[in-house]
Amino acid sequence: MSEPTLRTEGLTKRFGGLIAINNLSLSLAARRLHAIIGPNGAGKTTFFNLVSGLLQPSHGRVFFQGRDITGLKPHQISRLGIKRTLQIKSVFPQLTVAENLWITRQAGRGFLHPFRAATSDRQTRETVERTLAQIGLSSLAGRQASTLSYGDVALLEIAMAVISEPRLLLLDEPTCGMSPAETERTVSKIRELSRAVDIVIIEHDMEVVFEIADDITVMAQGAILACGSPTEIAADERVREAYLGRDEDEDYVEDAAHA
Ligand SMILES: Nc1ncnc2c1ncn2[C@@H]1O[C@H](COP(=O)(O)OP(=O)(O)O)[C@@H](O)[C@H]1O
Ligand SMILES: [Mg+2]
C-alpha cells in the first residue's frame, strides 16, 4: 500500500468557543478523486485551511504523503505540491488569461525577477501553452481575465493551480455559481486531471459528487459522519437522515444507490 495522500490525526480547530474541526482523524488514499460533502458550517473549508497552512490547528497533526506538515507556512506547503483554489475566485482581473498563468508559474518557482534567463522565459511560455491546452483555455489566452465568463474564471483558477504541477489539488466548491453547462465542462476537466494528480474536492452539488468521486467523506459538525464509495454513502442511513434528507438530493441518492 502506498502512503495516503492526506492523513490527519486528532485534528482540531477552535475559533473561540466554537469547535470547527473536532478531533478529526482521516486518511485519504492516493490516486483517488475524493469528495468532501456536508452541510454549511460542517468545517470543510476550515479543513482545507488547516491542510494548506492558512490556519494552524489547535491540536492534532496533518501528514502529506507520509510527511508531517503540521505547522508549516502556506508557501512551504505549496512548495511541497499542495495547491488549492478558494471558494472566492481570485485571479488577476487586469491581466490576460496567459499572463495570469505566466505570473503564477514564475512566482511558484521563486523567480519573479527582472533578469530572468531567456531560456526560463521560453520554458515558462511553453508550460503556459501546455496548461492552456490541458484546461481548454487556449482560445482565450489573450483575453483580459475581467472579461471572462464565470465558468472560464473558475477554469482559469484551476489552471493556475495546475500550472505548478501539484501533487495534490484541493478544490473548494469549484462549480459553485455555475450554469449547468459550465458545471459539466468543469467536472469533465476535473475528472481528466484526476488521472494525473490526487484531488480533494469540496462540493455541494450532489449530482456532481456522485458522478465524479471515487471516495466520499461526509462531514458534520467538524467530524466525519461517514466515508465510502458513492454507492455506500448513498445507502448510508445516517447520511440520509443528517444530510441527504432534502427532496432535491434524494433523487440522486436513489439513482446512485441503484446504479
Ligand atoms: N476564521 C474563522 N473565524 C471564526 N469562525 C470561523 C472561521 N472560519 C470558519 N469559522 C466557523 O467554523 C465553522 C465551519 O466553517 P467552514 O469550515 O467554513 O464550514 P463549511 O466550509 O463546511 O461550510 C462555521 O461555524 C464557521 O462560522
Ligand atoms: Mg466552505
Write a short abstract of this structure.
Helices cover 39% and strands 22% of the residues. By secondary structure, it is α/β, with parallel strands linked by helices. The longest helix is centred in the middle third of the chain and has 18 residues, at 118-135.
Topology:
Elements lengths: L5 E10 L2 E7 L2 E2 L4 E5 L6 H8 L7 E6 L2 E2 L5 H7 L1 E4 L11 H12 L9 H18 L14 H13 L5 E5 L7 H14 L4 E5 L3 H7 L2 E6 L2 E6 L1 H6 L1 H6 L4 H11 L2
Parallel strand pairs: 4-9, 4-10, 7-8, 8-9
Antiparallel strand pairs: 1-2, 1-3, 1-5, 5-6, 10-11
Helix pairs in contact: 3-4, 3-5, 4-5
Magnesium ion binds next to helix 1.
Q: What small molecules does the structure contain?
A: adenosine-5'-diphosphate, magnesium ion
As a whole number of angstroms, the C-alpha radius of gyration is 19 Å
The average pLDDT value, as a whole number, equals 88
Enumerate how many helices there are, as a single number.
10
Which consecutive residue ranges, at least 5 long each, have pLDDT under 50?
none
CATH class of the largest domain: Alpha Beta
Number of strands: 11
The main sheet comes to: 6 strands, mixed
- The coarse silhouette is globular
Number of domains: 2
Task: Tell me what portion of residues adopts beta-strand conformation.
Answer: 15-25%
Question: Can you identify the CATH superfamily of the largest domain?
Answer: P-loop containing nucleotide triphosphate hydrolases
Derived structural class: alpha/beta
What is the H-and-E element order?
EEEEHEEHEHHHEHEHEEHHH
User: Numbering strands along the chain, what is their spatial order in the largest sheet?
Assistant: 7-8-9-4-10-11
> How far apart, in Å, are the first and last alpha carbons?
29 Å
